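User: what does the whole thing look like in 3D?
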Amino acid sequence: MKRAAVLCGIGAWVPPGVVTNEALSAVMDTTDEWIRTRTGIRERRVVEPGTATSDLAVVAGRRALDSAGVKSADLVILATTTPDHPCPATAPDVAARLGMTGVPAWDVAAVCSGFLYGLATANAFLTGGTAERVLLIGADAFSTILAPNDRSTRPIFGDGAGAVVLRAGESDEPGALGDIVLGSDGSLRDLITIPAGGSRTPLSGPDDPDGYFAMQGKPVFRHAVTRMTAAAQEARRRAGWSAEEVDCLVAHQANYRILQAVAAKLDVPMTRCAVNLDRVGNTAAASIPLALADAAADGQLKTGHRALLTAFGGGVTWGAATLTWPDIPVEGS
Ligand code: COA
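Assistant: Here's the predicted 3D structure for the full assembly of 333 residues, as structure tokens:
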């Protein structure tokens, strides 16, 4: 049997602060109806001032370690768009707070595809034999990079963290990952961006509007559907699964209409799609592990089920993966 990365623990965490569509319509020019019908989102969770990405990541990471019944890992990978600081990476701090001082730890930056990029990184270490156990966390406090009254971004994004523990195992075990498909197209970098504040364009001052996240919704919608579908088809092909054999499609929770379009192109009915964006919105790097945890906690994703994962994010970047669901304790978000 082939050596494989095996998912053996999962943890999820969203901050307690709920922001409903009604609350947003009280402070910006939008309505519950517009947000619900265009995105499928009813509410999202938002951090209190002073709560950082690492605070979310530590809770999700601890829950994943508990779910796996272990105290530590050989390395810690944090996928995030919103590190606590521009420098250094946030993963070492998260590892230390989880009692893993001395363990290699680094951030992965692929925006909403970050979890799948992290999964591919973890997979390479585990299948290559240089690690036996990896803690992979996807966490974003996305609300901290949104312009306060921007109706084109505020309604869409939410904060949260999801984490998994992966161990070295064999390809026929429940929890085993199949091939992971990744891609990028940097010529589309301006579709999803924080224009200023990096080495290319410094912030012109504390009120520089280019210091906030910006997204061109329509082309992002189109590319997200095309790329997620193609990547998922390729991952499914490599796994040798037919459309009927996909028990659960876990696509990046960007927009309900995007999920519908991707599911339709993949011939997977919506009843077999994980959906939690109505409650948490688009949580960027946390989206896939949160959706996995919620689908498993709700009983939609059962032991032995074949799950097809796919995501699209800034860069632009995309990816897809397959796995069979293991028998592990799960607490939803
Ligand atoms: N409330 C009310 N009206 C709004 C609004 C809001 N929050 N945001 C935009 N509008 C208005 C626009 O001004 C526009 O008005 P106009 O027709 O008078 O010009 C109209 O609604 C349509 O705007 P548009 O941006 O074309 O809407 P859309 O149908 O493309 O939906 C998104 C916008 C952002 C929901 C959609 O493009 C989307 O989901 N894109 C993908 C986003 C995403 O998934 N990003 C993450 C990927 S990693």
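In plain terms: The longest helix spans residues 217-239. The longest strand covers residues 3-13.
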